[in-house]
Design a protein that fits this description.
Structural class: mainly beta
Oligomer: single chain
Distance between the termini: 63 Å
Strand order of the largest sheet: 5-9-8
Shape: elongated
Strand content: 15-25%
Helix content: under 10%
Number of helices: 4
Radius of gyration: 24 Å
């Protein structure tokens, strides 16, 4: 808690420097304060340094009392993370957390989206929330005070400032450069979170893969109408082609179907490519209680 060195990070270069804070004598222990680099430690410990200003329980900068945070020369990312947007109350999957989050700044803090309020939404490959139609929506049931994360990579087809992610998730691509740079598997997993404009940008440069969740249906170009659904084999009358379950929202979007008053299912799996016809060959059977529908 009385360090003789500090950490100076270099986010763009993927590393850091260790800089002395004072003259260090031969054989003196070299130490830095973990609270200046760690936000929320997975293995906290009790410090026994004996310094009069010892912080005691070392759990990360997030847990330092507000009155003492000014004593610490923390890394820039910790200052940003300390502004992380949190839930004001418990929310359920599909709930709107904030109603106007359009125009997120993804250039000011690499690996984060900055809100107009100055609060930040850090990147996560397994996010807790998503920006849908300018609203911040919960992707999971979350308690009050939970720190929110989003997948920054789905906000743009090409991020203006790509960044490295080391979350450890098996599907993490390492570099987050935008939706158009994701693998086909990751695009398939995250398609539901990509806004129509992002999908259109990826399609315009042939960098989008749309897979069909149904073996009865193929996805293929339909002239100037973009991608559409086509029968991959003969389909009998009355046959169920798609069994769709998605994210139930309290508002409509370009890719939702209303299943009940105030319930709109956001869906992918190829069924989002179905075209309109005044002489249709399929119909939608909604299941309001199950949050989905059949085709």
């Amino acid at each position: 808690c009385d360090p003789n060195v500090r950490i100076v990070t270099h986010a763009d270069a993927g590393g850091f420097d260790v800089v002395s804070l004072r003259a260090i004598a031969p054989a003196e222990l070299i130490a830095f304060n973990y609270l200046t680099t760690e936000h929320d430690m997975s293995a906290p410990f009790t410090c026994l340094c004996g310094d009069p200003k010892c912080f005691g329980e070392i759990r990360g900068f997030k847990h330092v009392p507000e009155a003492r945070k000014g004593e610490l020369d923390v890394t820039p990312v910790l200052r940003a993370l300390d502004r992380t947007q949190t839930t004001r109350h418990a929310v359920r999957r599909g709930d709107v957390i904030a109603s106007d989050v359009a125009g997120l700044d993804v250039e000011r803090e690499p690996g984060m989206a900055v809100l107009a309020s100055g609060k930040v939404l850090p990147h996560a490959c397994d996010p807790k929330a998503a920006v849908i139609n300018g609203r911040l929506v919960a992707l999971k049931d979350l308690p009050a005070g939970d720190e929110l994360t989003i997948h920054v990579g789905v906000l743009h087809c090409d991020l203006p400032k790509p960044f490295r992610c080391a979350c450890g998730l098996a599907s993490c691509p390492g570099e987050i450069a935008g939706f158009g740079h994701l693998s086909a598997d990751e695009q398939d997993r995250l398609m539901i979170l990509a806004e129509p404009g992002v999908r259109a940008d990826a399609a315009a440069t042939s960098r989008i893969t749309v897979r069909s969740a149904s073996p009865r249906v193929a996805i293929a170009p339909n002239g100037g109408m973009g991608l559409a659904t086509f029968a991959a084999a003969s389909i009998a009358a009355g046959e169920r082609i798609f069994h769709v379950r998605g994210l139930e929202l309290p508002f409509p979007t370009l890719y939702t179907i209303c299943t009940a008053p105030g319930k709109h299912v956001l869906f992918t799996g190829g069924s989002q490519c179905m075209a309109h016809s005044c002489d249709p060959n399929v119909r939608i059977v909604t299941h309001a209680d199950a949050g989905g529908f059949d085709v």
